[in-house]
Amino acid sequence: MDSENNNNNSTKSYINTTIASKKFYTSQFSFTPLRFNTMRLLMIVVILTTAIFGTAKWTPRLSPIDPSLKGENAASATVPSGFETFFYNQTLDHFNYKPESYATFQQRYIINSKWWGGASNNAPIFAYLGAEGPIDGDVTILGFLTENAPRFKALVVYLEHRFYGESNPLGSKGGPDSVDAMEESVKNETIRGYFNSAQALADYAELLLHIKHKLHAHNSPIIVIGGSYGGMLASWFRLKYPHIALGALASSAPILYFDDITPQDGYYSIVTKDFEQASENCYSTIKQSWDEIDRVASMPNGLLTLSQKFKTCSPLNNSYELKDYLDSMYASAAQYNAPPSYPTARICQGIDGATNATDVLDRVFAGLAAYRPGRACYNMTSGVSQTSIGWQWQVCSEMSIPIGITSNVSMFPSSPYDANEYVDDCVKRFGVMPRPHWATTYYGGQDIRMILSRFGSNIIFSNGLRDPYSSGGVLEDISHNILAVKTTNGSHCLDILSSLESDPEWLVKQRKDEVKIINGWFRKYYRNLHFLKH
Amino acid sequence: MDSENNNNNSTKSYINTTIASKKFYTSQFSFTPLRFNTMRLLMIVVILTTAIFGTAKWTPRLSPIDPSLKGENAASATVPSGFETFFYNQTLDHFNYKPESYATFQQRYIINSKWWGGASNNAPIFAYLGAEGPIDGDVTILGFLTENAPRFKALVVYLEHRFYGESNPLGSKGGPDSVDAMEESVKNETIRGYFNSAQALADYAELLLHIKHKLHAHNSPIIVIGGSYGGMLASWFRLKYPHIALGALASSAPILYFDDITPQDGYYSIVTKDFEQASENCYSTIKQSWDEIDRVASMPNGLLTLSQKFKTCSPLNNSYELKDYLDSMYASAAQYNAPPSYPTARICQGIDGATNATDVLDRVFAGLAAYRPGRACYNMTSGVSQTSIGWQWQVCSEMSIPIGITSNVSMFPSSPYDANEYVDDCVKRFGVMPRPHWATTYYGGQDIRMILSRFGSNIIFSNGLRDPYSSGGVLEDISHNILAVKTTNGSHCLDILSSLESDPEWLVKQRKDEVKIINGWFRKYYRNLHFLKH
């Protein structure tokens, strides 16, 4: 299914904004979707690339929204009124029966029952499966659940992923957004062993059954919803636990970006295309800039020149710092390339508008300044957050997503994925061997059309084709009830974010299509249920 | 689907046989199915009941054939010619990333490739998923794979379940059938933690991918086959790993005997019915005998009297020993109630034939003697085997199957299932709390028709309705490709055992129906594959 009808021209428009302050996050949010307009524009992505892991391309973050907003620049979001926070005494190790496996930890979940039609009506449950970050931020940003709950009289539940936020087995030292507990966890050889996707899915299974039991809602159908890594979890959850979830909405879930299913160039080829589409001049400026950065860096006082040109907060130690910073910026602008501001368009307007600049680097800086305006200086070193630390561990244990650049049509320098380097880096960092084939062993992915055309049902894979991660997504219907809903101009997880009045027609239609499909699942379910009970 | 057409009268017929000697097992078997005629008759079941675990009903063993044959009375079966034994360096812990999780163990698997059509023809693979016992015995007894391999040009593979046989992480001390390693494993708090069904399924996933990789058989479809507990594993494997197994034949798999899905009386009500159908007189004799045993036991020298009457090898310590022995005998006779000898019929012919005996206990003994003829004495104490020890652990960790007797229509005394007693027994024995709800959390089972009617495909649930475990089986088609194939007169796992010339028509038909269904899966698969490749 293609939700896109009109080729919206608003890619070139953008509105000015200012940088998020802590105040922005600590203030009480009302649940008016329009309030998040500003938030979408703040895409200060800190992507782990060569600065940390040598020269190989590293995995761009897999969050519905820019995780740095939640982890670095913000204190904990206050859960809006109407939402109640609970903790479940969760099994630490679902797949072993060792003395320490009987340990438990407190898993956070947040419920809003104001729209719920109740157990007696078998009213449904919308369950958001948390991904690699604290859950409270998601509550205010993921509009899909709350916006559609009234129509379906659904209970709305947000489940926090183990180890993030307040669901760290070591407790949330220094508060839910503090990195202390996370840092300690991933250093702790025993505790970090339980930090993986299969355990997280089993948490969700146990916790959702607990919630149904507590509410006597045995026959309430559950729809699981997730974005990015959380979208992968949602689709896997429906496949592994069909007896718990009736269906899944998996937004921007690159479930095919494992092993060699998706070509390694997939991600950056879309980043490149996004910029090429925004402006041919912008694209070629960026493409030229990498050699120019190296040329300047190699000159006497070259790094100082670069530091000054790019207004770095501290002097550059090497040219990689700058190149990584820009690489990450372009990637995240493409990934979170959402209307109405379209970050790629903003960068390109900066670059194209620097008509006085003859130097390619001045033009590139103008792009940066347009994307992240109003800053006295730019911090080129990656910050740390629960997300950045936790996701490193997940990548180094099992979430091995081979992204590289081999093609010279890319606007980035060549940087082929190096599996050995990945392993070496992980061994150096954590002392463990990654299991790069485990994801496809446990979850599948190869020949997905053939496998799932006669197996499974009730999954929506939604994607925006401007999202670089859509290259690893399911973009065609697999069967009449495993469906792909995609938009040509959409970006990462756009469909499940809160809607805006300014949303283009194609985005409104994508969401409507998804609701229609889910409604169809419910109709069949209730017909079945009625038939069984009478 | 009901494979049964004629109501075969051979229930009353039986042939004499002698007890298996070690020689029987150590001799070289040819692959003539007829040779196993004798074996089927040797159902010396050692079921763990009250003798070990107090007064609660315990879980009757879940093996395709009597496991005591393999564990207690026999040395290791010699793998027949044409079969090659291999070992795979298997991951000990698939769901954790702790230093010790990177440990591996040697998992045994046995391959016969003489019928295989080869990777270039995408010829299929029949994979037998080992259950709670050494795999080598299964190779000679499970005829379904080898008998059907020529027709499908299939590779035949038998995978050993972790901890059994030569696949014990502690090694196979004292040989593959020795209980030493198993005893040590279940006492070892660390190592036994990895001894569970989810880990075993993940073993099979990894190992089957390894075999396909080794043989370059990427497009060879795999059918997994299992019986009893192994049948549960087969159906769960298809549900959890549809990308690895195209389909599953789950023979006599009581996947619904968890939590409260199946009434606790299910098992023993079928045992009762089997005896009632064999002979009304036999049934009422057995029904009377329990009180009579208690009455005699309470008299002066009563236990001595009972010991003499029942020719026990050593004097009885209490009446439970005798009652447990008889309970187990009736249960296993019903469970393995296979043609041509039909053990229930043999017991009843003994009882009914004791026309000179006025004492009810003499008649019961005549039943025992008819079932297990030619013995100087009867050993009432349960023997130990890898199976009995290993299965105790599995029951006490997760395979909690609540079997009890509440109804007075049973031919057994009342003995309601006591969940608290189960927990107490397990805590006393292993020091761990069982997780009785984990099986339904991970595998489902509740509302299975509604859940799977629109999810999943290519599973055959086969059952014989005289098998007490069929009470927890799937007995009706769930969808057009999740099918129940049952026979009115069949017993436990009969369909996957080697065929005999004397097999009744309904059994021949059941197997034919299964082959036809599997053939349909292949036809669709190859059509799909052809379509994708051209």
TrEMBL record, chains A, B:
Residues of the signal peptide: none
Keyword line: Glycoprotein, Hydrolase, Membrane, Protease, Signal, Transmembrane, Transmembrane helix
Record keyword Protease present: yes
Gene3D superfamilies tied to this protein: alpha/beta hydrolase, Serine carboxypeptidase S28, SKS domain
Pfam families, A to Z: Peptidase_S28
Transmembrane segments: 41-59
GO molecular function, one term: dipeptidyl-peptidase activity
InterPro entries assigned to the protein according to its UniProt record, in alphabetical order: AB_hydrolase_fold, Peptidase_S28, Ser_carbopepase_S28_SKS
Recorded family membership: Belongs to the peptidase S28 family.
The protein's name in its UniProt record: Lysosomal Pro-X carboxypeptidase
Origin species: Deinandra increscens subsp. villosa
Species classification: Eukaryota, Viridiplantae, Streptophyta, Embryophyta, Tracheophyta
